[in-house]
Amino acid sequence: MSKDTSKFLCPYCAETFGSFDELAAHALAQHKGEPEPRPEGMIHLTVNGQEFDIQVQPQWTLNYVVHDLLGFTSPKMFCDRGACGSCTVIMEGRPILSCMSLAIECDGQSIETAEGVAQAKHPLIDAYVKHHTMQCGYCTPGFVTTAKALLDKNPDPSLDDIKEALGGNLCRCGTYPQHPKAILEAAAELRKDQGEGQNG
Amino acid sequence: MASTEKQRAREMLDNLRFDKYPIPKERIKSIGDREVRRLDGVEKASGKANYTMDVQLPGMLHMRFLTSPHPHAAIKSMDTSKAEALPGVRAVLRYDDPEIQQEEDLGGHGVSPRLPIPLVAHFQGEECGVAIAADSEEIVDEALRLVEVQWEQRPFVLDPLEALASGAPIANPEDFPESNLEVYYEAGRGDVEEGFAESDVVLEFASRRDLHTYVSPERACGVWRWNGDYPEVWCKQQRPHIVKRAVASWFGGIPMNRIELHILYQGASFGGWSQFGWNLAGNYCSAVISRRTNRPVKWSFTRREDFYGGSMDYGAHQYKVGAKKDGTILAVKAESVYANPMWGGQGPVLHLEECTNIPHLYGKRSLAIVNKGPCTAVRCEQLPNTHTLTLVFDHVAGELGLDPIDVALKNDGVHGHDMAWASEEKMKMGFPQTDSLRECIKSGKKAVAWDKKWHKPGTKKLSNGRMHGLGFTWNHEWEDSAGSGEIAMRLERNDGTLRILGMRCDNGVNAETAYCQVAADEMGMKIEDVFYRPHVDTGFFTQTPDSSTNMSVNGFAVRHASRMLKERILKAACAPRAETQRGSYPAFFPDCTPEDLDIADSAIFVKMDPSRRLTLAEFVGPAGDEGPLCFYELYGHERTPFSEPMFSYSYHVQVGAYKGGIRPRFIRQAHFMEVEVDTGTGEISITKVANVNDVGKAINPMACEGQMYGGTYMGIGRALWEEVVHDPVTGVMLNGNLLDYKIATIDDCGPIDTILKESQLGFGPYGLAGIGEDVPTMIPALLGPAVYNAIGVWIDDYPITPQRVLKALGKI
Amino acid sequence: MKAFAHFNAASVEEAVSLLQRYDGKAQVIAGGTDLLGKMKDRILPGYPEALVNIKTIPGLDGIAEKDGLLKVGTLAILEDIAHHPVVREKYSALAQAARRTASPHLREMGTLGGNITQDIRCWYYRNPNNRFPCLRKGGGRCYALAGDNRYHSIFGGSVPEGCVAVHPSDTAPALIALGAKVLTSQRSMAIDEFFQVGVAKTTVLEGHEVVTGVEIPQPAPGSKSAFIKFAFRKSIDFPIVNCAALVQTQGGKVAQARICLNAVFPKPYRAVAAEEAIRGKKLNQANADKAGEAAVAEAEPLSHNAYMVTAAKALVSRALLACSG
User: Fold this and answer.
1) Whether A4 and A91 share a structural domain
2) Backbone angles phi, psi at C67, to 5 degrees
3) Shortest CA gap A155–chain B (Å)
4) C1 to chain B: which residues are within 8 Å by CB?
5) Do the Cβ atoms of B681 and C230 come within 8 Å?
6) Is A97 at the interface with chain C, CB within 8 A?
7) CA distances from B413 to B359, B405, B471 (A)
8) Could you tell me the residue range of the domain that residue A33 belongs to?
9) C-alpha B191: how far from its chain's center?
């Protein structure tokens, strides 16, 4: 980083100054009374319902933080370039690639991983086991999160909907034909549960 | 043992056709059951399954190697001072470090000692010069960029045919100073010239297979920790026994019993990386660095580095085939060149030798050295054979205007004999008389409506403007990996559940569940009472290569160990229990002999009076200080049931199946592919595939089918797009990532019918044969015949890209 | 990745001021799927000292019709564009292009602004660690010319001469066919003028200029648009060739047509010759094929990509026919 941009950075608005005095004057003039800024790089992340405050560096990916630092091993690193879907997590209802997201840009977000899908006793897990929807299993959690995001958005997906939604998940073992079977079964199970809920 | 007992034990181990002790039908409960739950299912679906890449230890360092930017270059000098000065760098292990000047066993098929860090790179991307370990992967990455190397660049050659031409630069003067031809092998039978002379037609054609690779989801990696003087090793490796053998030979020798090995779930490597001769160098250097830094070390490749290794069918073939007008093939001459194979390889006419009656065969394979990464068995080494069989048969059918199915049936045979001979042999060996190929064809034809849909090549245009094609090929089923499989099992104290013991790599084919199914039915136990987790080093190495030799080797060992254990349990149930210093205690079934008893639903019972039963849990009793006698002695409680430890083991040694006299090929597979070819863009859509595999007996049908549709997807990727591309000018790999190297996605194949046939014609237990390698090895070459049927022109170079399609159509 | 500074911009003005302050050493990040790949591979000629996140700027992700225009904010997510009912109905080419872009996950992350400002995918340019110091990095030559150019230009090179890397966007040709305007922090321009090839450059954007959105005029009555993509795989892949067309028919004949190919030239390639060939003609197979032939009449394929010419011809014809009826 060049000198003039790093030395005296306003923690409120990121404006920079040539000296500390200038910065202090600016802060008093512009930001007096504002709540104290959080330390730079501090983010608040909710993973599967658990809350974390964690200090990150700008270059850390969401995958590094969630998998390596927080120990949720399900978002797997396969291609590391956004081309395989193995590191998929759900954020704001969207299946996104944790290897191509900067953790620092996920401040305040709530994230769901395959561990969370299992923890919530989502019928996808059982359906996946029943249909042998995994072989080596390395890519499987990425499929599970992608499928969960699909079912959240579309509880009654068609075969084509499923194939489209899974288009970005690579499976080298070729388990592909089993995923629609498992997802359709889980969808039916969910609808049944909801139906029962309404009736009961 | 009395000699009759010995005899009986031997019979139970018998791996020939005759099984003298088949399980009665009514006791087969979990074998063949589609509902048996995968042991690894929940763990994998929920993302909790751990792989070597997931291992993190306190204080762990990360290590990577420098890689060569040039396809052939030697390090003249190397300055690592800037890397050493980078904060967070903990160790820099240079090629000239005195501690690594010894050639070591670093993996591979045989023992071929190498230096852990080479000084010369023979392909772009080869690890050489230095390994660096630091606090994070980021720092290692940065440090590697700070290494300054003076390279002596050497001339290189990339194409295997060019490598064999005179005047080609020597690709690897260190190992092959004389020439780029490593060696050649010849095989065959009869006299092909005689065959050609007798033939009505003789056709010649050439074929190429471009370099493709395995793409393992989990990169090559490993972790090393020293516990005092003893190593604890985590490794992404398909063959744990080789890891342990190698580790034991390092650093002046480490006793085998002090090495703790963990082979966690494997992000599959399909052969590939696990078979290269240098694949343990990462572990070796991690060990050295771990010792110096007193910290655990994890090494890994980058995704791109994992692309530098390919399948040993990379190369070219030249074919000459002679046939009668009716489709009888008389002679096949196949001359092939394979590039950079790590071992001799197979083919090209091996399958023609094994499962046809063609009288005259000649195959020659020349192994050429080029400046690309090493090539090995990548699901699988039979690729040149399936390629040859498919192209030879379909070319003959095309040339003569015959239905390829008729040509297959006409030439189907066993080691040069016809099917009448095969019938006799089947009889002698106690096999059923089933004609496996005919059965497979019958089912497959129905699945794709062959009789309705097949047409003369290039004659059917669909309403969407595309050309329709239907292709067929066939072969035998193979399970060729020679080796030994050891299995042990024990009944657990307290609950009498059965745990199978044996270390192997779990590549995801679900063989572990299948072993439990065999044990459950053989023992008379509930399937949920049997468990197997192969990650732990129990000292028993259960055969991996994990591919087609799961059940066909280890199945025998499991079956035998189960039968021995059951015998032991029944014997113990009738005998006085637990001989101790205070005497022995009465038998559970004092009035019975073992023959009077049996086990079902995890309980021992008296055959004549099933109400007299004892669960296995009651039988084994608790362990330790809750054990058998102490409570009685102290408090006068009822004696706790107890028996001596219930443990058994077995093994199976499989010689290769190559020698026809021992294990003739009776069992077949057939595959059908329907395609649409867009003649405007050259795009090929695969609209339907039918896999028909006669597996002899399907222990876990869902797992078998998984190998079929899974193999189909792998196969179509190989057929359509998969190619590792190198820049012809600089030799640099251009597409070492998952975007530019294209493996199939879910939508790239139409419906796949997976049809299992169970003829019991296999040489495995219950008459089964292997399946793991078959389909991905069969499917690639099948695309050519399907496309030929669509456009009426042969494309024999693979992958069959739009460029090649449009060229064949004369459009470019 | 190597370290960098990171700023969340609260407004376009703040983003611009940050970019100015870093004077060419900062990069804008939105979806990040293109940029982070380049940074991981270190293929940027100069690794950025800072990233300016514009996802934090409110109001730039809208998709709405107003004043006879479809206004799409630069942060509009591709997946949302693909499924937006108005876009699907009236601006089909854009919806179809968005839907065929990359993979579902990348569409859930990627933005329209990012898709039209994305960098080239040439495998020499993208080879990790700047292994090939090519023209687009200010180096001396284009390595694809003598190398493996199976995915490169069929209409010659540029920068200022020589680079044969193609523009990879799927939405760009759709926007060109639809006659869109690009709005930036300092100006607006017809999208035809937006793309410009230079060292480390695919657009005319200045170093501190930020795309804020696009505006697309409502297609005239009797118009229909379509997008066709030819890629190896059904998902994930960048196009081998793609083509978007907007056709207005009157009295059974083509009154106006805008046709744009992409992935065939360093910039999106407006197929003017094809537009002329189809104008005034009935929209049928024969005429569409002729337009396809006209589109590639000037093509000069390289050693490995003649197939792209055939494909481009077919795609022009098919895109036109998809606009009929």
Assistant:
1) no
2) 55, 40
3) 20
4) 138
5) yes
6) yes
7) 10, 14, 21
8) 1-37
9) 34
- B48–A74 C-beta distance less than 8 A: yes
Which chain B residues touch A186 with a CB distance below 8 Å? Answer: none
B332-346, B396-410, B567-581, B618-632 — which is least confidently predicted? Answer: B618-632
Q: Do A48 and A32 share a domain, yes or no? A: no
Query: Looking at residue C242, what is its pLDDT?
Result: 98
Contact A132 B48 (CB under 8 A): no
User: pLDDT of B579-636, one tens digit each?
Assistant: 666 666 778 899 999 999 999 999 999 999 999 999 999 898 877 655 555 445 555 5
3-state secondary structure A134-178: CCCCCCHHHHHHHHHHHHHHCCCCCHHHHHHHCCCCCCCCCCCCH
- What size, in residues, is chain C? 325
Structure tokens at B522: 């053989």
Contacts of B253 (CB under 8 A, 6+ apart): none
Question: What is the distance between the alpha carbons of residues B419 and B262, in angstroms, rounded to a whole number?
Answer: 48
DSSP state letter for B128: E
Return the SS3 of B472: strand
Residue of C nearest to B717 (CA): C233
> Total structural domains in chain A?
2
Cα angle: A153, vertex A155, A158; to 5 degrees: 100
- Clarify whether residues A69 and A32 are in a common domain: no
Burial of A156 (0-12, 13-18, 19+ CB in 10 A): exposed
Phi, psi values for residue B428, rounded to 5° = -60, -35
Q: Do C232 and B811 touch (CB under 8 A)?
A: no
User: Residue B82 contacts by C-beta under 8 Å, 6 or more apart in sequence?
Assistant: B146, B147, B148
Q: What is the pLDDT of residues B470-504, one digit of tens each?
A: 999 999 998 766 678 899 999 999 899 999 999 99
pLDDT, tens digit (0-9, with 9 covering 90-100), for C243-302: 999 999 999 999 999 999 999 999 999 999 999 999 999 999 999 999 999 999 999 999
Local structure of C255: helix, strand or coil: strand
Three-state DSSP at C247 gives: strand
Are A50 and A31 found together in one domain? no
CA B413, CA B391: separation in Å to the nearest integer? Answer: 18
Q: Do A125 and B46 touch (CB under 8 A)?
A: yes
In a shared domain, residues A56 and A75: yes
At a CB cut-off of 8 Å and minimum separation 6, what does A116 contact?
A47, A48, A49
As a whole-number percent, the residues of chain B with pLDDT over 70 amount to: 93
**Nearest 5 degrees, angle CA A17-CA A21-CA A24?**
80
- Residue A105's domain is classified under what CATH number? 3.10.20.30
Neighbours of chain A (3+ CB pairs under 8 A): B, C
pLDDT of B681 over the 50 cut: yes
Distance CA C7, CA C297 (A): 48
Give me the residue label for tokens 């240079």: B94
Strand partners, B469: B675
Domains of chain B, with CATH numbers?
A: 3-30+481-654 (3.30.365.10), 52-154+227-295 (3.90.1170.50), 402-480+658-808 (3.30.365.10)
Report which of residues B15 and B287 the model is more confident about: B287
Amino acid at A48: N
Whether residue A50 sits in one domain with residue A148 = yes
**Cβ contact, residue pair B745, C309, below 8 Å:** no
Q: Is the same domain home to A172 and A98?
A: yes
Give the residues of chain A that fall short of pLDDT 50: 1-5, 199-200
Q: Are B715 and B722 in contact (CB under 8 A)?
A: no
**How close B636 comes to chain A (CA, Å)?**
47
A2 and A24, same domain (yes or no): yes
Tell me the C-alpha distance between B215 and B362, whole Å.
Answer: 34
Q: How far apart are CA B699 and CA B30, in angstroms?
A: 8
User: How many A-C residue pairs are in contact by the CB < 8 A criterion?
Assistant: 97
Instruction: Report CA torsion sign: B548, B552, B557, B563.
Output: positive
